[in-house]
User: Fold these one by one.
Assistant:
Number 1:
Amino acid sequence: MEFRPLCAFVEVVRQGGFSQAAKTVFVTQSTVSKAVKQLEDEVGVPLLDRIGHRSVLTAAGEAVYRRGVKLLADRDDLLAELDEIRGLKRGTLRLGLPPVGSSTLFAPLFAVYRQRYPGIEVRLIEYGSTQLAESLRAGEIDFAGALLPTSEEFDWQTVRREPLVALLPSNHPLATRRSVSLIDLKDVPFILFESGFALHRVIIDASRCAGFEANVVARSSQIDFMIELVSAGLGVTFLPRMIATQRRNTTIRHVSLDEPGAEWVMAMTWRRDAYLSGAAKAWLDLVREIHGEESLSDYSKNE
């Protein structure tokens, strides 16, 4: 059902006749008559009983008028809502972020985004990289924070590059060095994130490239717990430098990790060629505004 004939019919009923309705909608009386006749032809029954110069609603006309008023009101509400969405007064942004580094990297972006677009609802989930990639692939979220390199099916914008550091007990023989390689640590037990975290993959892959299989004695999703295990002398763990420096502990030492390819590069990723809502485009614009100077040239999507 088209809205134009319905609108004309509703105005005829509201105004009490065709001539007054024509003045209200700024068209000729014949145009209004044709529109009402078109609506009657579409529904298959008369809507108005024309008695002289008067028009009285039939039973069908009463039903169409009652529902029509609601349909037109809903249409107006929809158009107003779409205008608000296009103007970023309303909408939803769905973000997936990893637990590692999110508070430091993305909290300032959230603050700016909320200030600019207070009517946008932000729906946030926190998972490891594997689950975030699955959610992004399924279209359950608009963006996911992920370490590079990432899947070729995603596009990205780099957010932060950080060197990795090894966290060792302060009494460990290697704790006094300025830097260590993974081969230096091959006999030290590894304390890593759970396998669903990208940093787990980075360390395991780098160890294999260095020619050995890491002896992983503990896995966790909690940074503070991993640091406590290091402090207790259980082994070594690895963190981006910016996160490690936020968690100073006198019983551990931070030693730079000198290993090719072992770098923590956080990016905002989204499905290639996916539709991005106005709210999503505004978030991406903000990420590029703040972090757009980051280089993408060192990474291949299908590495």
Number 2:
Amino acid sequence: MNPTARVFISYSHDTSEHRAFVLALANRLRDEGLDCQIDQYVPGFPPEGWQRWMETQIEQADFVLIVCTPLYLQRYRGNDPDGGRGVNFEGVVISQTLYDHYYRNTKFIPIIPVQGSLDDVPLPLKGYTTYTLPQDYTALYRLLTDQHATPAPEIGEKVALGGSPPPRFISSKENKRNLSDTMKAAYIGAIAAVAAAIIAGLLALFSPTSSISTRGDCSSVVTGDINSNLTLNCSKKD
């Protein structure tokens, strides 16, 4: 909260009751920590004159509350030549300030009395939030004192999620290349298997522990282990 925020109230002197309404609003804002200014606080007239005083108040204020009534709108537009010129002049300053800032507005706040209407809001201010008093006083006070009712929380750390990575897109050209590499690998594996089988067969054929010898006269047969002999008797054919 900024306790030194300056607030200026721009309004028309519609009736004595309306003047009392604006005075009560200004008194409450000052009582609750805001430097609020209205013309009723000036004794007599300001030394620099009303015109310069109004211009200075609008320029130096952090917020300008614009109390919108049918008479205020009429004078804001310059359509009441017989009435007070204060609102007419303030309307020119407000419109010019908005124009100079490309209507990026953080300063001018339209206010509607409880019996007022949105139709009484000047056209350059209709695109912004309007506060109806007294029921919207708390919301208005939050704005003036920078006490937002629902501030955004701080941004936390990003959450790391598990799971498999998404499938990678494979082009048709790459797919053909992968298929060709697979066929080559299968062909080489088959050749290696055949070669291994041939080598194993040769080793088995020429191994000394698995030889078989026979004698022509069938008197004896040696088989298996060379240390064990099996003799078979053969009968001759007649």
Number 3:
Amino acid sequence: MNEISIVAGGRDDFMTVRHLVVRGDHTAIGAALAEEAHASAGWVPAEIDPVVNRARWTWFERNWPQQHARMSGAAAVLGVDPDDDRYCVDGMPTLPSGSGCSAVWCPPGLSTDGRGRLARNYDLFTLSEQALAALATGGDPTSAGGPPMASRPCVVTTHPEDGLASTAVTMSELDGCTEGINEAGLCVVLLLAEVVDSEPPTAPIGPQVGLNVTQVPRFLLDTCENVEQAKQALLGAKHYNQGVPCHYVVADASGQAFVWERGRFDTEHVLPAAEGALCATNHLLHVHPDVNDLPPDTERSFHTYARARTLAERTAAPLSAVALREALDAVAMRAVPEEPWRTMWRTVFDVADRAMSTRFYLGDGEHGLARYSAEVTFRATG
């Protein structure tokens, strides 16, 4: 039986967070996600180049059969013939359609209780897509309509009959995610990778063959049990960006971790964690491997270098679960009226428990402090 509930926020808060629990085979899971996307966001399949779409179906069938089955379920519930290549049946939004984030991997050897944890802040603009576009072009964002982009996140827990159970947070697409953990203890988070130098595309980029940036974490959660499998899966997959590129922190229950990112000329970089904490913000680590040599921040860098230096300083000594949370809080986006971005949520993964604990942004409070929900824990098992 599928379940849906509100776990944080509500009508009078910035965001309302739903938790969707789906059980069955992957075809049934895809049907349930499509029904939810249609009900909550009015989503219907979009037209797409049939040649590209047939290649996408073939790629998923060969490389990510779980997604292929979910797409088949979505097509069935929406009355779309899977052999009709005119329609795209993935990319299921929770909300009608640049962020900066921070993450720390604390290995078991650095943790005061011997438990490995991955923690992250998810930072984003408080604006709607229309308002952000107006701001970027010198217009008045207050006159633009639409709900804020991160105002309807969803936690999706899946219990497939024929694969790895997982729980994940998504800001937008129900068949993708920004972070998550599976029953094997593999967890992954995405962060913007080139906040300083990248320019968003001037025209919308439609679905391509392979994995978009929010499908990468879901792909790993579906197909991998540990870091070594995840490395091979990422290097063997086909990727594309529809906006600013991302990099990923991946960790597992054995205490291993790495960052995966793409560089110039489509080079791929696997950066294993050394001893101590592994910290990532919004610059490419293979370009700036030494936190002591980072350049100063600019108006376009969203404090990425300052956040990296602060995290490095605060994670040098053994970390308790509380100290790890405090390190992320030290680099959280404060409630500054003239800066339209906030830390939308903070997630802490306990790889031994196969669980993630997340608190969500509810609005601005007093004295430059943001209001957050109580931390809610979600498990990939059970």
Number 4:
Amino acid sequence: MKFLHTSDWHIGKTLKGRNRLEEQAGVLREITRIALDNDVDAVLIAGDVYENPAPTPEAQKLVVRTLLRLAEQHIEVVLIAGNHDNGATFEAYKPLTDVAGIHIYGHARPAANGGVHRFRAKSSDEYVNVAVLPFLSQRYAVRAAEIIANTPSQNIGAYDQLVRDVLDNLTKPFTPDAVNIVMAHLTCTGGVFGGGERAAQSIMEYHVPAAVFPVEAHYVALGHLHRRQHIPAACPVHYSGSPYAVDFGEQNNTHVVCLVQASPGTPAKITDIPITSGRRLRTVEGTVAQLIAGRVDYGEDYLRLVVTQPAYAGIRDDLLEPLPNTLEIRIHPDHAGTGSTAGIAVDRPARTPAQLFSDYCHSIGVCDDRVLALFDQLHDDLTRSIARP
């Protein structure tokens, strides 16, 4: 049987105020065309379908129409919630989407209660088991382990052990006469960040080793890290990555969907199919004159300009008029202390909220790991989008 693995669409994502919905529509049309051209049995979407837990009606319309078009071609559509999605909303619409042939999972559940999606491939009549694991925040990993794996509260340990306990339950129904797949939205140890992930839900406390995935799995379809990559493990573990550059940190990534062919007794064969519809993001460095002189090379790329000269009044207008696709202007650190930088960012490395809070605590003489842990918990509660089960 054949299926597509994709993830991290982030539909509704804007960049520096620029609406990208038309661009995102082109990406989804290309993914749909690839699915149809390759006559796949299924499309697996491993989370972060939307950029926000409350997507706009336009973003929802685009996603729904894409999923319906796939389902209308008798393609099995299986989708899980990521940390940017609203799992509770996914669950609310599940009875309706199931009727349409679109199978969405907002919360983790036991294998015996829908935690494994089963179907027969239309092309080969092979049985397929897909163990589905939507994103788990640290707090709700505890709840999931208690409910799904019957892990006693007093035995609850690190996040990776909780995920292992849940996966042990979800993969028990795997059988040798079926194609067995795990689909999850998480950070795998050794994975390389793509550049646009939410830092608070990608830190070491959220890492799980690839050893949590069973050797019986023909393929592990992961979402969350935006870079296309293979994680060494006893079974094939792959991130498809985002199909377009979500942020400037991803400007050098390769954007693909993974076409996977698998049979019960045969190792999975993975083919990367490039996605070309998304607009390129590009960081360009130089003086104002050099940046303007290079405009013939930029095409329709979205630009982040790093200016290597002192800022002056009117510098934004001088750059934006000839370079209308500029989304951000930064002053190189060597020139940050000279001239006026009003309204222009200084090109300094980004710092996470946890790092900024730690620096603040240090500046006022507070050195207590419990305070930092409470901040991490509060930030996790505020940024997570999986509602309470």
